[in-house]
# Entry
Amino acid sequence: MKNIFLFTELGDASAMRKALREAPYELVTRVLRGTFLDCPISVPPDLVVVEPSPHKSIAHLVPVLAQHPVVGRAPWLLVLDPERLHLAPQLPCSDFIVRDFTAAEALSRVDRLAGRPSDREPLVRSGPVSIDLRSQEARLNGTPMTLPNQEFALLRHFVQNPGRALTREALLQAVWGPDYLGGSRTVDIHVVRLRAKLGETAARHLQTLRQVGYKWLP
# Structure
């Protein structure tokens, strides 16, 4: 069984601990206090989750995490306050999740980073859109959508990450891959095309975040 270390400043009020306590992982909760991490092991866990107190500056914490002899050698997920989303492109974490997340979203992020293959139903639904992960087919209110590969991949990524702020750079990495040489304007063009195919009502789920990127509203 894969092991996850959760460093939290919230103790029993930790939303992440509540979200993951029934997950099929060995979850170890450790103390996070300022830049102090209660981390006695020398072998990195499969995943580290860091949950600072709400509305607390992370300017001094992030470099400590990145250089930590244990945490720095494992993928890590950072709980981020909404007002600090503008910092996301510069963060060295493997991924981030916005505070007030749902348990399903937290488990999805953890599954992806920890590498656990999904044993869930291969149909993902959000609002009027459903994605069949086996047939790679998108439906809008039950009607199949005709989408080129990149538009389908972009819509799938949005629907699989509901409520999460996604930067253009993160979308380029996830949808086009790390070797893609085009700029972030590519994302904007595909979002425009996708919104046109979703129609006025469904397109409202795809929100633009000024100076950040986009978010799919569940």
The first helix runs from residue 15 to 20. The first strand starts at residue 3 and ends at 8. The chain has six helices and 13 strands. The two ends are 31 Å apart (CA to CA).
